[in-house]
Specification:
By secondary structure, the protein is α/β, with parallel strands linked by helices. The protein has nine helices and eight strands.
Length: 268
């Protein structure tokens, strides 16, 4: 006969034993799967090499259309104003054109293929003879169409600068003074000094007569005229008078000069 304790053991259910992983092991397995899925999407990199940073494709820049030039040609302007400075620096109160600035501009104009012609605007009282002749020679042998326009005044060494261009204009109210050369500073009273004066004067005269329609005799006569200037010898020509004497080709303004230069460019 069984006792009470035997029936008690039969009434109490025994716990079921299952073979399942613990919570920690399950969490570790999930983390491992997540890390594996991330690493599978990334490109493989070798040891010691740095992964290249991701670069986003930039939208293609929209550039404006290139600016079209003047179909009639490109003109470079050159202004010669005030006094033409030579080898001595003028006082700061004087307006001057420095030849060391103008010479490189003329060389660049001759070398630049985008420049088709040169327009020289003159309003000068004159200045250094050698500097003026140097600029005049560059203008005369630029190799491109050139036009000059005398505005206000083209005096003294400004005359060779005006006639150096292929075609010259003078404004109706502009003036040109023709006179012999002068020298500043100490002068040695010797025959050689006067011979040098004569040679320098001939250089100026030869350039003017070569690049204009005036004769040498008429030019010398106007230079030595003692009836027009109170304290000097020479001649003042205004507008149309310079054309009549053969120094300048025509009377006109900026529009006339530009139209003439455009026409010369079109014939090249």
């Amino acid at each position: 006969m069984k006792n009470f304790t035997d029936f008690a053991e039969l009434a109490v259910p025994r716990p079921m034993v299952r073979s399942m992983p613990s919570f920690m092991s399950a969490a570790a397995a999930v983390n491992e799967k997540i890390i594996k899925s991330i690493t599978d999407d990334e490109p493989e990199t070798q040891v010691g090499e740095e992964a290249e940073p991701e670069t986003k494709e930039q939208p293609e820049a929209i550039m404006p259309p290139p600016r079209e030039g003047n179909p009639r040609g490109t003109i470079q302007f050159l202004t010669i104003i005030g006094q033409v400075e030579g080898h001595v620096v003028l006082p700061p109160t004087n307006k001057a054109t420095k030849y060391e600035h103008v010479i490189p501009q003329l060389v660049m104009c001759a070398e630049n293929n985008e420049v088709d012609g040169l327009l020289v605007l003159l309003n000068t009282m004159g200045g250094d003879v050698e500097a003026g002749l140097a600029l005049s020679e560059l203008i005369a042998h630029l190799g491109k169409p050139t036009v000059s326009l005398v505005l206000g005044g083209g005096h003294s060494i400004g005359v060779p600068l005006a006639v150096a261009a292929d075609f010259s204009y003078i404004a109706p109210s502009a003036t040109m003074t023709i006179h012999p050369i002068r020298m500043n500073g100490t002068i040695v009273g010797a025959p050689q000094t006067y011979a040098y004066f004569q040679k320098t004067q001939e250089r100026v005269e030869d350039f003017i007569t070569t690049h204009s329609r005036i004769s040498n005799e008429r030019l010398k006569h106007m230079m030595m005229d003692a009836t027009q200037l109170a304290q000097d010898v020479g001649t003042i020509l205004i507008g149309e008078e310079a054309v009549q004497e053969g120094l300048i080709d025509a009377v006109g303004g900026l529009h006339d000069a530009m139209e003439k230069l455009y026409g010369m460019i079109g014939k090249e």
